[in-house]
Design brief:
- With 454 residues, the chain is of the alpha+beta class.
- 48% of the residues lie in helices and 17% in strands.
- It contains 13 helices and 13 strands.
- Strands 8-10-11-13-12 form a five-stranded mixed beta sheet. Strands 2-6-5-3 form a four-stranded antiparallel beta sheet.
- A hairpin with a 4-residue loop joins strand 5 and strand 6.
- Helix 10 runs antiparallel to helix 13.
Amino acid sequence: MVLSLIVIQAQAAFQVWLFAEPEVRLTGARWLAEQTSQIATEIFSQPVAERAAKSKQLSSRLSVTWSKERPTNKSDKSQEPIFARLGATIKTMLGQNIRTVEVYDAGFSVVAPFESLKTKLEPPSIGLSLGSWPLTSGEPETLVPASLRIIVQGVDSSWISVSFAEPTVSGFNSFVPLLPLIGGGLIIAAISTLLTRRIVAPLDRLVEAADQIGKTRDFVAVSDQGLHEFGVVARAFEDMQRRLLLFVKERTQMLAAISHDLRTSLTRMRISAEQFDNDDDRNGIMSEIDDMTAMVDTTLAFASGEASEGTTQPIDLAALLISLVDEAADKGHDCSYAGPDHVEFTGRLIPLKRAFRNLIDNAVKYGLAARVSLEASSGQVEVSISDNGPGIPEHRLEEAMAPFRRLDQARSAKIPGTGLGLTIVRDVILSHGGSISFKTQDDRGFTATVLLPK
């Protein structure tokens, strides 16, 4: 729209330039001849060293210069009849004090489709009767263009140039022709801005709603105020949300029912296992039952969105990480913390605690150590968790984030888990508007970095 506005204004300015009527100034031929003769006589009577300075002091109406070289390459060979009479008059007035006089049209003082004034005689034969004799004192004044330039060569071969000074327009009057263009442009710009805001505002609301959908599982209303077409888009967007929420709700209810049945069966198995006389058999079955119970609970929590729900509240993120590190260290794991003692953060405590616990548990399970560091700036916090393990190949990072996916089946078979740890971590971090990245360094372990906006 801005480009179109510029092109329209340029086209309008071009029309003004093309169809404008240039101002043609006229002056009297005899008056110009007399002024030129007086100027030439006075300048050539001065010493050579003073002629340039004297030429600048002679006339306020005319522009006068003196030079040793010819001031222009133009010639008067194709001059009009009236120019010839003007030159003859000046020669007559100056007599033997000069060598030659040339008169030519220097053109208009404004940029226009025309460069100079040309006269055309009808019929051409009239020019033969005009002749080139000087203007006499009794003859009426003759008008000539004020764009003429007269150059006079003295007997010492130096030159004098006489012409009218360029007219200047200053102040407010110089902008008057441009006011319609400027005013029209401002009006178009104002209307275009209002229309653009009206078009873009619904799109902004739609973007905000789409961003909220990634952070919550509740219904996000989209305002349909604005153009009718955007109202249709908003309603279609809300209908899509309702269908997705219904789909998730049905699947969650199904998983809840399955989970309830599994828990009931596991409870019966636990009661039966407690009746075993052999301690080894009883402990082995109880361990399996505990793993299955943990898997059911984790799966249900993930499916129901428990990892991204909860009340937003002020949290001391440093204290949270320190407590998780101490918890892992109390279990005999190699775990350490580096960073400030207190960092204020606003978020959901339970999901964040679960996410960072998953990362620390992964570090001590697969990397034999967990080095937790925290850095805080004015706008975000950065949490890094490093270990001594082999890490995850870069081309398999997305696969590792998939639900129920465990990359090293041979090794992870001995380690309890469901393959939902990183999936839950990603959901929690994204629901807080943050990001998570992973980096594997040769001989130095694996690092998970979490960035969260304050």
